[in-house]
Structures are given as structure tokens and as C-alpha cells.
Structures
1.
Amino acid sequence: MKMKTNDPKKLALLESLKGGLIVSCQTQKDEPIYTEDMVVKMAECAKWGGAVGLRLNSPEQIRKVKEANLGLPIIGLYKVWHEDTDVFITPTMKEVDEIVAAGADIIAIDCTAQKTHEGTIAWDLLPQVRKKYPDHLIFADVSNIEEAKHASANGAEIVAPTLYGYTQETAHIEGADFRMVAEMCRELQEEACVMMEGHIYSPEDAMKCIFIGCHSVVVGSAITRPHYVTKRFVDCLGKYQNNWRDAERAKHSNELK
């Protein structure tokens, strides 16, 4: 594996994820499936099914899964929504510190060119995280190739088009852009691992991602969020009168219903 890092621990962790499925186990407090132990059950199911890693949101849920001793590496993030910005994935160092303290093995942050609630540019956080946590892998959530290149150049070992469809420029998209991801893989092949995340709804599409060069694949809603799966079917059966992805993009409340 050709990578910018020579850290044997980082390389071993990346190698353990190669070619595999990472399951995003997340539930928000305002969702119908939320219970205090739901994220642990999701993670247990992911391990049972053969997942090589987990992607978890919030210190609380990271800590719960860590305590379950499942033995799978954790990509940690912390979603915080504000009305004046579309930046919501681990937007400041405060959230980074909290997920690291909770036990995240890999730090996921927004590395787009969007303006944050604090008035900064999201990707400006990356060099700060790289400096403070040199022993952690950084997972850069981006929306296009330019942001992926910028993230790699500034220290991210992993990049993923997680936010393709969640920025103003890409809000119109309906599915994965495999051609863009393939180009991302070619551009960064000796600099960073490209992991596919976002809009993958079948094993066949996941396999396509590996074929075009992705290091591994992250799948969330299609596996762990039955209310979104149901809404997607209903949207299709209803002749696309209501776009189910509006619900998927919705901002959430951190409070219990």
C-alpha cells in the first residue's frame, strides 16, 4: 500500500479495512427507531454480518459501542446542526476532542469548502486536527474532487464523497456519481485511500465501488435505517410525488421526542 504515512499502526488499520464493508450505525433521538441501546444492536448486527468497521455519530454512541467490546475499528464523528450552514459533521475542535475522548479510532470531519456556523471554512479545521492528533487517521468527508485533493494535501489519509448531495452545489443529485469517484481514486491513488460513502443501496453497487478503485465502502441508511428504506420504496411506488431524500437530508433534534 503506497501512502503518505509510514506509521505501521495506521497502515495496519487501513489494511484491515481494505475491500470490506464499513457499516454506519447511527440513530437520532427524533427518529422512530431510537432507543438507548439501538446503536449497540446495530453494531452487533454489523459485526455478525462480517463488517470490517463501524461509523458512529456522537461521543455517547461511540462510547456505548466501545464498551460493548466488538473489536471493530470506529470511525467517529459528531453531527451538530445549525440553521445558517450546511456544515454539520464534526464542525469544530470541541467535537473532535469529544469523539477522540469517547474512543474513536478514526476522526471524521467535514472537509468541504462550505462556510461554518462559526464563520470559518470547514476544511480549515483539518490542519488543526492533524497537528493535535498525529496518531489518528483522519477521514475527510467531501463533496467533490477538488475538496478531496485539498483534504489529501492537508493531511487526511482517507477521503470519501460523503457530502455529495448535501451541499448547495450538489443538492439536486439523486444517486452516486461513480465516474467522479473513479476519477477521485485515480487522482489520489498514491496519496490517500478513497472510501465510498453515500447513496449506495445494494451489494452490487458496493461491489462496483471496489471495482473502480475504492479502498472500502461505507453503507448506512440502506442497512440500519428501516424508516428511510420504507420511505424510499413509498416514494418510488407513489410515482415520485414526494422525494424521500428530503427526509434523509433533514436536520435533526438532539432532544428526545
2.
Amino acid sequence: MKNARIGIALTLAILAMSPLVSAEEGACKSPAPGMPLELDGCKAGDSLILREVHFDNDSAKLRPESKIFLDQVARELKQNPTIKVAIEGHTDNNASYDYNMNLSQNRANAARFYLVSVGVNPDQLEPKGYGFTQPIADNATADGRALNRRVELELVGTLVLAPAKPTKVYISTFHAKPQQLEVPVGTEVTWVNYDEISHDISFDGVMGSRIWTSPWLGNSYSLKFDQAGTYNYRCSVHKDVNGKIVVKPSVTEYVTTESPAYGGQTTSSYKATQTRVPYGG
């Protein structure tokens, strides 16, 4: 009987603990001090307090340590380019209503400006200032006022990205045209070879592909870029064939390069025309 009671007690203990474990998994939680922000498990309506974002007293100037934490926030947002968030500034109740509304809005704007400066898509970020209208602690105490002075990150929806358009780089007379190309995340870039010799395209020393050639037939190699960053490439044999692909969370315009292939075309007569058009237009 004693063993049976022990077994029942253990079973009940395990059952009691199980929901707690499940609730923790995939939960959307504010980062603990010294820990990075994680958006896994977060959904629209969830809000995270960014306790490591601080400003100078009565100012919207970010402290240096705040930028270190916001760099982590930026990385998380760039890895989740369809998440749209509100950056919310909150204050304690010292000073007037209008003063605190203005201060909280300026602080939200400052955090947004910094995130954009390090590469976050501005369309993901909506700054909002609430002043002292949404306290989370008692403003009658110093500790409560410190808790109320905060920045929150609220998930407000999903950002619909414009579909990335495939674009081309043409190789002729042993040069890539255009030599630098800015594209949004998700773009497929195609290199078209109009030289009478093959080229080996490699990225920062990592081999990509050989673009074989039958003179002036325009054989090609394509690569899709799913992560923001700068990708330098060059032909491993012909060093003048080089360039860079700059992949951004979003772009406002893109370059189209057109090169009609003419019968009997030679590399010396090759021409490429380039135009800039609004992205999504």
C-alpha cells in the first residue's frame, strides 16, 4: 500500500508539472538582463519590455550600452523580415502630460532611427509614445518610477513584402555590368556571359559556378540571396570580372540591365543599357 501511495504521488506530481513545462515552451517573454531578444513564439499583440534600452536623463539620446542591445534586436528583426513591430516609449509621471508624451515619442523615434541605421527595414517599425498613460508600477515610489520608464516592443502584425524580382548581371569585355547591384532579400541574380571564354564566379573565395560559353550565346548562372549582406564576387581566373551584390531588407528602386543579343556580336561591340525603376513598379 505504501508503494502504491508513493507511485500515485509521483504520478500526480508529474502531471502537475507537465502543463508548466508546456507553457514555457515557445512562450514570448521579455529578455532577462544580459540576454538577447528572441521573437520565437511571439504573435501579434505580444509585447516585450526592452529593459536594456536606456536614455540620458530627460533626453532622447541613447546611451552607448543601449546601442549594443539594439544591435541584437536589429539582427532578430532582419532574420524575421515580415514581422512588424511598434516601438513604444513610456515614462514615469514626473513633469506634465504634454512633456512626457513628447519625451516618450522622441525616445521611440530615437530607437527606431538607430535600428534603421543598422539595416532594419523601416517599414517594420512604428514608433509610439505613451508618456505616463500606461504605468506598470506605482509612480509613488522610486522603484516604481524606474520600472515605468521603459521601451517596449509590441508585435502589431505582418509586413507583406513586395516579391523580389529576378535581375541580371552581364559579363562582357571581361567586366561585369553593373558592377554593383542592390537588391532586396529573396532576389535571384543571374550572371549572363557574353565573352568568348568561360568564367569561374566565386564569392569571397568560395566557388560558385563556372559559366561556360558558346561565343555570344549568353550562357548563365543564377543564385538566390535569402540573407541581407554584401557579397563580393570575382572570376577566379580573370580578375577584372568582379563586383558585389548588396542585399538589403528592402530597396526603393532597382537596376535593370538589358542586352539584346545580335547575330555575330563581338565583345568589343557589346553594349548594355541600364535603367532605374521604383521597386514594385
3.
Amino acid sequence: MTLRSTSSATDAKRGGDREADPLGPDSLTWKYFGDLRTGMLGVWIGAIQNMYPELGAGVEDHSILLREPLQRVARSVYPIMGVVYDGDRAAQTGAQIKSYHNTIKGVDGEGRRYHALNPETFYWAHATFFMLIIKTAEYFCGGLTEAEKRQLFDEHVQWYRMYGMSMRPVPNSWEEFCEYWDAKCRDELEINRATLDIFSIRIPKPWFVLMPTPIWDQLFKPMVGAQRWIAAGLFDPAVREKAGMRWTPGDEVLLRIFGKLVELAFVAVPDEIRLHPRALSAYRRAQGKLPENAPLVEAPGFMAPPRDRHGLPMHYVPPRKSLLDRAGSLVHTTFSLTGLRRPARGARDRSGKAA
């Protein structure tokens, strides 16, 4: 069952014709999306996104993920996080991300036309980020109640409005979303070249890492292998079958035990490490520790795309910083990692202050 509406009334009903309100520190999305544990699902989200035919075709024809996977993912996460954490500037960040997709279009190997701004395709990518939160929370953060899943669904709709896209592909409820997700996994996802590339991905050593390449490779091989195993466990059975992956009841038990160990270990992880820098700065703005108009945290300059790709509209290029700015960032990061400015853990009220 594919849930889609062709009437303009649907957009209006979901608020597509009014100014969107950004998410805030009282949301569950703020609690989970910026958490480091989402990184354990890197292979899962890369593969499940690319299995969507139009999205996979765009990656095959336009992405340089295999050329510099670490830098590509690291820098892209900054604006993606911003659509959740940038407050009154979130819609501007959403428009920025949307603009990167204007020129990503073409015809795939089956003769099917694609465009990254096709509403169905763009929403699928967003749906995978929503499910990233659901699966991270369920497996590695202690689980979710049904009420929390419904709250996260409502928040993902509010979050999606930040992009200024058509709301027509968006299901009307958590129950309808589950039907949408099941139908996509069962009937539309496919194992294509872009997906296979994720399964077999190798992480080349970045130029700025001062480590012998053989040692780097030995560090990352088991890490990628572990992520493939996690991905197999988190795939829906229909997707796992398409991918030819084996998953046993024993694997499920091991994954649940591993998830519980991760949950317990993260109790002692400070927010400066646990949270993405864009999320951490958002909490500090909400708590009054930073001005509301403080500059948004951007990706480090060394994560920029290769020089031959600068100027292409599909790339986010971190702004250059002066030597003074970089020195200040270094000092700030050093003090942050000591925990001297660690924000309070636990629940936060609507003002962003610790409860």
C-alpha cells in the first residue's frame, strides 16, 4: 500500500501552507537525533536510503561518497542536524539543504527518470532519518513507549516542514507511517549498485590523519563489519531477504545484549562527547549559555569536499575561518571536553533549563 494524496487540501491540512514552527529542547527528537549512538547505524541508513530506486540512482551518478566517505558523512551531518537544532534558523537551514538537490537528476540504468526533489524521494530520505531515531532509541537508549513513538512521528512531520517541500507524501499518523514503511520495504526497495557499495565500503584514510594506512585499515575493517551486522539486525525481514543477509534468533539476542551494554556505558559519557556539536550548541543557546543569535556550528574546514568539487551546487562547503577563529575554537573545544561547561543531563522544560 502506497500512501499518497494528490489533492492540495492534504498539504493545507498538514500545515504545508503556513509558516512552520521549529522543534525545541522539549522534543524527543532533540533528545535522540544528536546522540553519538546514531552513528552505529551508519551502514543501515546508507543502505536503506540507497535502496530507494530514485535516490540510489542519484547517488550512483552524482555522489563522491566512495571517494571520501568519512568527510562526506561528517560534513553533511552538520546542516542535517541544523534542521532539528537551529531554532528560528532551522527553516533557513532546510532551504539550504533543499538547494543542494536542485541539480541531482537524470535517467537511471533502467531508463527511469529521477530527481532528488521529487517529493516522494525527498520524503523517503527524511523517513529514514526518523526511523534512525526510532531504531537507535529502541536498541541502544532503553526503548520507547507507543506514546513516545507517536510523539516522535508528530515531531518528524513538524521537522519535515522546515524543508518547504510538499507534504503530500507524509502519512497522517504513526499507524499509517508503519504501513507506508512496510510497503516501501516490501514492494519498492531494491538492491542496486549504490546499496552494494555501502555494504562493501572501505574507509580511505583522510590526508589529515597522522597514522600509517595499514593501521588505519585494521581499525576500520572491524568497525564497518560490526555496522553491517547491526544493519542486518535492524533491517525489516523483507529488506534483509532482498539483501541476502542471514539473521538468527541468537544474533537477535546478542544485538539486544550489546544494545543494553551500550545504553549502560553511555550513562557515563559527557554531553560534550555524546552530542553532536550542532546539538550541543543548541542546548547551550536554549539554556542561555550562548546568545540566541550565536553563529551556528559548521563542519571543520578539513572536512570540505575536494577542491575540484568546490563550486558545485550539490556540496555543502564549510565556511573558512580566520586563524583567530580557529584558535578560539580549539580553546573552546579543549575546555568543553574537560566537562567544565557540561550542560545538565536529564529532562529539560520548555525554556530549555534542566528540570
